[in-house]
Amino acid sequence: MNRLFSDIRLAEIRQDAIRNIVSLRASQDLFDDLTDNPQEWLLAQHIEAEVKPPSYRSHTPVIDRPFEDAVWFNAITWPFKHWQTSRFSDGSFGVWYGSDSMETTIYESVYHWYRGLLSDAGFESESVSIERKAYTVACNAALLDFRPLVQKKYPDLIHKIDYTFAQSIGARIHREGHPGLLTHSARHPKGENYVIFNPAVLSNPRHHSYLTYRLVTQQILIEDALGNTKLTISTNNL
Question: Where are the domains of the chain?
Answer without folding.
Answer: 2-237
